[in-house]
Specification:
The protein is an all-alpha fold. Helix content is 63%, strand content 0%. It contains 10 helices and no strands. The chain is globular, with a radius of gyration of 20 Å.
């Protein structure tokens, strides 16, 4: 998803994930953006995400090892998440509760993904995937809260992105599960999963760097009218690609399927994402040319889209 003027998308682990969090925190500091500047919803989301992540503490209790592998552990998880929800109901109301319960769920999922990642279970790589997916959706909300709080809403989590997005995710889970039972060795190719993991980390980093660079010009809702605050962002990662956020999401999405060793969904995600971003970029660049005229055309001539075989909107001379 590339954002230079309020445009929008339509459409680990352990040390790697925590190092990624640290990198984002460093970016915040470098931009002189302290957590104190987060709006109330942003602060509630961060506390709730960390509260959900506290599920990791259950692994320290005797008799619950492995936490996800037996009845006592699964029962403890069910009781724990029910307790977390009860606590959130006591602490928050209305919108803040809706924010808190989503952030807490994503933190809980991230923690469970880490727990699976530490095991020698055939689901280990799926644990990496859960970490990647939950972090992606939570960080979308957090970065938006930090850089463009006026546009912040529950939709900023991107959990209700689209029916197509949900079906694609479910398809990948089904493929992993079916192939795991039919061809279990195929899901244990660690070097392939590591390639996918690196694609996920690089794609995620590029996307969040684009959001941070664009600042308040980044919006999850399509902007069809130019406001007085909109500027054409061409610095940072936007000097590499015209659509760094789309580039990041493109490779992140494909990387999740390489990580899962899902051959069918890897191809499917690549084709579907490419077609989607091709149409989206052409549509957005038509608007951007209208907004910025020759300034954008000059930028377009100098900087590529960043996506293979996608040139963007063709200007007729």
């Amino acid at each position: 998803m590339s954002m230079v003027c309020g445009r929008a998308p339509c459409h680990p682990i352990c040390s790697l994930s925590f190092s990624h969090l640290a990198r984002v925190a460093t970016l915040f500091s470098a931009s002189d953006m302290s957590l104190v500047r987060l709006p109330p919803e942003g602060r509630v989301s961060l506390l709730s995400f960390l509260l959900g992540l506290s599920v990791l503490l259950l692994s320290l209790l005797p008799g619950l090892e492995p936490l996800l592998g037996g009845t006592p552990g699964r029962l403890a998880l069910a009781v724990y998440i029910a307790g977390l929800n009860g606590l959130l109901l006591l602490l928050y109301r209305a919108l803040l509760y809706q924010v808190a319960v989503r952030a807490c769920f994503l933190g809980f999922a991230f923690g469970c993904g880490l727990l699976i990642s530490f095991t020698q279970s055939p689901w280990k790589h799926f644990g990496w995937y859960v970490c990647s997916l939950s972090f992606f959706h939570y960080s979308e909300y957090l970065i938006t809260a930090l850089t463009n709080p006026k546009s912040l809403s529950l939709d900023s989590f991107l959990l209700n992105h689209s029916m197509e997005y949900s079906l694609a995710a479910i398809s990948s889970w089904l493929e992993f599960t079916v192939e795991k039972f039919i061809y279990p060795d195929m899901k244990q190719i660690t070097w392939v999963a590591l390639i996918g993991l690196m694609m996920v980390i690089i794609g995620e980093s590029l996307r969040k760097a684009a959001m941070l660079t664009a600042g308040s010009n980044f919006n999850h809702i399509v902007q069809n009218e130019k406001s007085n605050t909109h500027i054409l962002v061409t610095a940072g990662v936007y000097s590499w690609f015209r659509h760094p956020s789309y580039v990041g999401w493109f490779y992140w999405s494909i990387g999740t399927q390489v990580l899962l060793c899902n051959p069918v969904c890897t191809i499917g995600y690549a084709v579907a994402s490419w077609r989607f971003f091709k149409e989206r970029i052409e549509e957005e660049e038509f608007t951007l040319i209208h907004f910025f005229g020759e300034q954008y055309l000059d930028y377009k001539r100098k900087v590529p889209t960043g996506l293979p075989f996608i040139k963007g909107f063709k200007v007729e001379l």
